């Protein structure tokens, strides 16, 4: 019998490198059938089972499926029963969700004192569309303090992109095991069974779920063949199995509802697999940002890590965008994000540090949401620092910050749970009330240039370039 390896050191794990590859992985030599998918009898007496992530008939470029060779097939379980789980905290039904044009922000979500695992610690913030029609998305958060033990989850509604913010995740999947630390992300696609253990005892993070397409790398256009998230930096687990008799609970999410079935063995009994439908992780430190090296602030799409496309060209169901540590070198430029209203809705989270647009109030483990056409941009303090004369001299330094955005074409509807959360920041709008008028009808380019020159001379006399301050135009 192979024992449960949930506590194995992260360094001991082996991964396959690359994005979207047709891969093969064997935990025992010769476990994959040679030259065919389903021989009459498989090597080692395994069962062959296909997991389809697209319609059988999807075009080859989009087609996703894997073949799993396992000790017993996944069908070997007792009937599913609905789990008694409060429907309003985890949902895929947004028909009665609430919309608001107001800017929303949440302080960090508290991690429960009592023992709560990844699944019971998941709660939905917002979403749109429908898991039934396989169209749309949901954004969840999780806070947990216990490993899942002998239970696993399979999500029939879509793909999960998981962003741990505090505390790592040790995830056992049917394809193998991965350790995902804060600063890394992982994607676990529709239907894959996985169980989350907590090497750090607790974890908090964000989850983007897409009901339709799968995540892919964005096109690079004129950037060329390299840069942003490079394919080789994505890591897929290698086959790992346990042949363990136990009382196991398989939890299945269908249309946001949870069902549970008992079975007498661990579902992580896949000895070998091959295919192009497999989970993966990615270290955001490997992201190679491309940005303006002269002037102006590019649109944040320049920082796209992964995109889940809709049928509308160039328009995502959801993009995953990261704001990594980087040099900010644009001159005579307002460096923080510009003020704007966007057809896409923007949910943001912070993994660590301070975000370019918010000097205060946007904290690691917190979140913000600016829905379709809701105005937003830098807070007053950030505006003032970024427009001060000294800002021209500072801000070339990289700062240790890691924020991200889930950006979606679908207008999000919020759950009562998210809107009623005790950590919602009811004073968020006040971060902009100090943005007073600087309008000067007597302004001329000559006067402006003279003021700039005087300020530059003053700052030189005062000791040259200032040191960068958090949020001080270094965005
Ligand atoms: O709103 C935000 O902070 C996200 C964002 C960042 C940026 O650099 C430009 C536009 C934008 O929406
Ligand atoms: Fe924005």
What's the topology here?
Layout: E1 15-17, E2 23-26, E3 47-52, E4 65-70, E5 81-82, E6 104-106, E7 122-130, E8 135-144, E9 151-155, E10 159-166, E11 169-173, E12 176-180, E13 184-188, E14 194-197, E15 203-210, E16 234-237, E17 245-254, E18 257-265, E19 270-275, E20 280-283, E21 304-309, E22 316-323, E23 345-352, E24 367-370, H1 380-387, E25 402-408, E26 413-414, H2 416-419, H3 445-461
Parallel strand pairs: 9-17
Antiparallel strand pairs: 1-16, 2-19, 3-4, 4-19, 5-18, 6-24, 7-8, 7-26, 8-15, 10-13, 10-15, 11-12, 11-14, 13-20, 16-20, 17-18, 21-22, 22-25, 23-24, 23-25
Fe (ii) ion binds next to loops.
EC number: 1.13.11.5
Biased composition (Low complexity): 451-469
Domain Homogentisate 1,2-dioxygenase C-terminal: 286-439
Shape: elongated
Question: Which ligands accompany this protein?
Answer: 2-(3,6-dihydroxyphenyl)acetic acid, fe (ii) ion
The chain-level structural class is mainly beta
- Give the CATH level 1 class of the largest domain: Mainly Beta
CATH superfamily of the largest domain: Jelly Rolls
- Describe the largest sheet: 9 strands, antiparallel
Mean pLDDT: 93
Helical fraction? under 10%
Ends apart, CA distance between termini: 54 Å
Give the amount of beta strand, in percent.
25-35%
Explain how this protein is built.
This protein is mainly beta and 475 residues long. The chain folds into two domains: 10-283, Jelly Rolls; 285-434, Sandwich (Jelly Rolls). The chain has three helices and 26 strands. It has a nine-stranded antiparallel beta sheet. Strands 6-24-23-25-22-21 form a six-stranded antiparallel beta sheet, with no helix packed on it. A four-stranded antiparallel beta sheet has the order 2-19-4-3, with no helix packed on it. The longest helix is centred in the C-terminal third of the chain and has 17 residues, at 445-461. The model is unreliable at 1-5 and 464-475 (pLDDT under 50). 2-(3,6-dihydroxyphenyl)acetic acid binds at residues 300, 337, 340, 342, 346, 357, 376, 405. Fe (ii) ion is lined by residues 337, 340, 342, 346, 370, 376.
């Amino acid at each position: 019998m192979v024992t449960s390896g949930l506590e194995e050191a992260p360094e001991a794990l082996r991964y396959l490198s690359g994005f979207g590859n047709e891969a093969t992985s064997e935990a025992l030599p010769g476990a994959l059938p040679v030259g065919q998918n389903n021989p009459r009898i498989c090597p080692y007496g395994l069962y062959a089972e296909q997991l389809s992530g697209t319609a059988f008939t999807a075009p080859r470029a989009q087609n996703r499926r894997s073949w799993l060779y396992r000790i017993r097939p996944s069908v070997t379980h007792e009937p599913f029963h609905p789990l008694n789980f409060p429907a309003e905290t985890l949902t895929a039904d947004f028909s009665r969700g609430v919309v608001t044009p107001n800017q929303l922000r949440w302080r960090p979500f508290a991690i429960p004192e009592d023992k709560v695992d990844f699944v019971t610690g998941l709660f939905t913030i917002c979403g749109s569309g429908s898991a039934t029609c396989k169209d749309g998305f949901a954004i969840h958060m999780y806070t947990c303090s216990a490993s899942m033990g002998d239970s696993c989850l399979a999500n029939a509604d879509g793909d999960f992109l998981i962003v741990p913010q505090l505390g790592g995740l040790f995830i056992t999947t049917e394809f193998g095991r991965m350790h995902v630390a804060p600063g890394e992300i992982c994607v676990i696609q529709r239907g894959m069974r996985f169980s989350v253990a907590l090497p750090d005892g607790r974890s908090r993070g964000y989850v983007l779920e897409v009901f339709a397409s799968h995540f892919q790398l964005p096109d690079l256009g004129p950037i060329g063949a390299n840069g942003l998230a490079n394919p080789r930096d994505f890591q897929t687990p290698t086959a790992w199995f346990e042949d363990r008799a136990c009382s196991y609970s398989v939890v299945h999410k269908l249309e946001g509802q949870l069902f549970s079935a008992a079975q007498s063995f661990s579902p992580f009994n896949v000895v070998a697999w091959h295919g192009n439908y497999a989970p993966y992780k990615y270290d955001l430190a490997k992201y190679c940002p491309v940005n303006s090296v002269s002037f102006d602030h590019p649109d944040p799409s320049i920082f796209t890590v992964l995109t889940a496309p809709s049928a509308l060209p160039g328009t995502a169901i959801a993009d995953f965008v990261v704001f990594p540590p980087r040099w900010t070198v644009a001159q005579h430029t307002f460096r923080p994000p510009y003020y704007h209203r966007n057809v896409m809705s923007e949910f943001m989270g912070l993994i660590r540090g301070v975000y370019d647009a918010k000097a205060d109030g946007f904290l690691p483990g917190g979140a913000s949401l600016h829905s379709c056409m809701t105005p937003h941009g830098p807070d007053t303090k950030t505006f003032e620092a970024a427009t001060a004369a000294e800002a021209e001299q500072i801000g070339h330094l990289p700062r240790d910050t890691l924020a991200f955005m889930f950006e979606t074409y679908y207008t999000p509807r919020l759950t009562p749970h998210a809107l009623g959360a005790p950590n919602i920041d009811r004073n968020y709008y006040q971060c902009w009330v100090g943005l007073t008028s600087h309008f000067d009808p007597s302004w001329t380019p000559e006067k402006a240039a003279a003021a700039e020159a005087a300020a530059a001379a003053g700052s030189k006399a005062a000791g040259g370039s200032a040191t960068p301050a958090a949020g001080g135009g270094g965005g």
